[in-house]
Amino acid sequence: MIFQNINTPPNTTYIFALLIISSILSLNSCSPEAEYVPIDQQVGALPQFVIAPNDNPTTAEKVELGRKLFWDPVLSGNFDMACVTCHHPNNGYTDNIDLSLGVGGRGLAQNRTGGILIKRNAPTIINTAFNGIDQAGNYDPSNTVHFWDNRSKSLEDQSLEPIKSMEEMRGDAYTADEAINVVSARLAAIPQYVELFNIAFGDDTQINGDKIGKAIAAFERTIIANNSRFDQYARGDETALNAQEIRGLNAFIEAKCTACHNGPMFSDYKLHDLGVPNNDKLPQIDNGVDGKFRTPTLRNLSSSGPFMHNGVFDNLTSAVNFYDNMEVNDDDAAQLNFEDEADTVAAIVAFIQTLNDEDFDKTIPESVPSGLPVGGNISN
Ligand code: HEC
Ligand code: HEC
Q: N or C: lower Cβ tally within 10 Å for the chain?
């Protein structure tokens, strides 16, 4: 049983913060059942501010343009899909279905019918600005990882992929190679977009993939939820978690969940093979990268289920139960065992729910510059 990826020395501010929390707790008798938080844990609060790449500083103008693009089905082959079709704020910027339904579908989230079956569960956009953050709180937003198989390195790059994908947005209206040029030409023919791109990037700017990606990424960097009860606790408010939740935090650490779910996002952003069961809806087994998938964040799971890369677990309790008696089929072979199973699982679930923060931007624009239905075909 070796969890090697916890070797990284934790940042001193972390340890200090946690030492303070532990000492406050030990002096405080108002929650007598609560165990103290060990100081060697590798988890902590999210930063208050987001870093943007040097060549794409976040500006209000870019964010507003990015928001319009995110909601506008003009980015899709048949004018039916927007990013928001699968990443809707009312569903925590995801779609709450096991496997997303793409081109040709109608309706939103559980009411969605038809459409091409996507082989993976849609992760949330909330806090993706922090993808790749390490245990010391460091990350490089121009060189990080996105997608369940880590295949994209920045939000700027990632945002062009759905536009090119046949299943997600393109359909068969044009080829993947043509997609960005076709979409750029469409935007250049809409006066309101020309104006918005000029305001965001300078007069007479050329509308192209680079700028579409930059604007969408700038918008996504504003979809942040970094003030969960756990964050408040980690920043020093010892009343933010109750006794069961603190027990859950300790059980989470004792069960070595932090071997992979670590840092402020509760992810090491590395690939692992957990042997998650298949989703029978899929005609072919999705093998990820040699059977491995990226450790997902555990933040805001209240609104991002079903769980795992293929959405095979409907609820958090089943996802956590999955780990009982598990032998992780990984480079870091590991075995997880819960003592007093039901109680431990309930406490861990209660703890994970303290990572929810519903206070994120849920703005729904009244219209989009193309004049198409806002968000695509999302009403049945
Ligand atoms: C048909 C549904 C659908 C549409 C439309 C869609 N996505 Fe996604 N999105 C997904 C799925 C499914 C994944 C996971 C795919 C994978 O990992 O291979 C994903 C992954 C992502 C991720 C990675 C998150 C992470 O933590 O790694 C981001 C960011 C994202 N989408 C943004 C967007 C943007 C921006 C658009 C519009 C340009 C968009 N999506 C359109 C379903 C969709
Ligand atoms: C060896 C690394 C590793 C360890 C240890 C680990 N996890 Fe995970 N966790 C992952 C990976 C990888 C996934 C995604 C697997 C997939 O989809 O195939 C995941 C998925 C999850 C999910 C689903 C999240 C979502 O958005 O779909 C939950 C909940 C979860 N883990 C909780 C835990 C708990 C609780 C523990 C400790 C009992 C734990 N994990 C231990 C790597 C790990």
A: C
